[in-house]
């Protein structure tokens, strides 16, 4: 097997692993949402440590994917991936394209869940700040905006 074939095989195996991590990440982000709503800070701290591990793994994997694509002479990003997959034997097109599309879908789901959790946290912080300031009406002037 040539170096290029080995790199493409590694790229696909990494994408399969990334997809599994994105599915797990999405589940953890859903749990994070529930813990935020319940204001369970100790459990949130533990969950956040798990999230950081997954984020670090996915970051390393993205860097490795970028390096593999460079070694293959393919531009990084969706267009490069799709161009590379178009060069594979026709029997593999549907599987690798489905894998890539699902990987993108999983990443987008995680991005949306993460943004929603951020909004939820900001809302809670605003509510708490308003509660703090209502108990001390003289501090309304110093309220954070």
UniProtKB/TrEMBL annotation:
UniProt xrefs under InterPro entries: FlgN-like (IPR007809), FlgN-like_sf (IPR036679)
Full protein name: Flagellar protein FlgN
Transmembrane segments: none
Annotated keywords: Bacterial flagellum biogenesis, Cell projection, Cilium, Flagellum
Family, as annotated: Belongs to the FlgN family.
Function noted in UniProt: Required for the efficient initiation of filament assembly.
GO biological process: bacterial-type flagellum assembly
Pfam families: FlgN
């Amino acid at each position: 097997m040539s170096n290029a074939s080995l790199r493409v095989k590694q790229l696909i195996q990494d994408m399969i692993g990334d997809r599994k991590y994105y599915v797990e990440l999405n589940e953890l982000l859903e749990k994070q949402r529930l813990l935020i709503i319940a204001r369970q800070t100790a459990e949130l701290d533990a969950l956040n440590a798990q999230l950081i591990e997954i984020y670090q793994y996915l970051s390393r994997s993205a860097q490795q994917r970028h390096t593999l694509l460079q070694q293959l002479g393919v531009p990084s990003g969706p267009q490069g991936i799709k161009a590379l997959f178009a060069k594979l034997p026709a029997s593999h097109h549907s599987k690798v394209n489905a894998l890539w599309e699902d990987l993108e879908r999983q990443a987008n789901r995680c991005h949306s869940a993460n943004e929603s959790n951020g909004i939820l946290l900001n809302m809670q912080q605003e509510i708490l700040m308003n509660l703090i300031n209502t108990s001390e009406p003289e501090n309304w002037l110093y309220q954070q905006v």
